[in-house]
Design brief:
- The protein is of the alpha/beta class and about 240 residues long.
- Helix content is about 35%, strand content about 15%.
- The chain has nine helices and eleven strands.
- The strands form three sheets. Strands 3-2-1-4-5 form a five-stranded parallel β-sheet, sandwiched between helices. Strands 9-6-10-11 form a four-stranded parallel β-sheet. Strands 7-8 form a two-stranded antiparallel sheet.
- β1, α1 and β2 form a beta-alpha-beta unit.
Length: about 240
Amino acid sequence: MRVVSLVPSLTEAVAATLPKALVGATDWCTHPADLDVTRIGGTKNPDTERILALAPDLVIANEEENRAPDLDALRAAGCEVLVTEVRSVPQAFAELARVLAACGAPGRPRWLAEAEAAWASPPRARARTTTAVVPIWRRPWMVLGRDTFAGDVLARLGVGHLHAGHPERYPRVPLEELRAAAPDLVVLPDEPYRFTADDGPEAFPGLPCALVSGRHLTWYGPSLAEAPRVLAEALRAAHR
């Protein structure tokens, strides 16, 4: 089986389970750190000719991270393309099992079982809140909205967010409006925008800010096994 992955989360999942199957991955596929495969461009602008030259048996993609025209072009050229949809933790487990089976995995890998166990009874990061805001970008400011995987992850740790009912999944919201909402927590991941202690919290003076790992908040793969603990610790730290 020759697999090209267009999704960092799925790249890590396949690499941890069937490392010899991967022949290509995006420039954004940073885990595992020693991954040695052909790079085929970004998630939004993959080099379809380079992908085709790898003669993959399967290309794995995601409906949110990858563009339909690129996937259609691969299908038109004869590639089999498996497209995932992941908007909740249970859906992540189901889609991971589907992808790994399609890639030839003989059964559920240990890391997936460990991840499911970790999320069966996740720690509560804090008393339930529904007024957190979760920026994912600035210039312009964008936040988590409705129906997102990251939002479901936070909810399972006891953190709801202010824009969960917004009609858009990743709405643009002016900073003044975010401040005026007076959220009791601001969650700042280090991807897709790399918020840091010096870049992000200063925009929300007087509000507790939790700097969290974007990989643990937004990736669905082996990182899911440690995500509940890592995220809960980071969220609690904001109130110490």
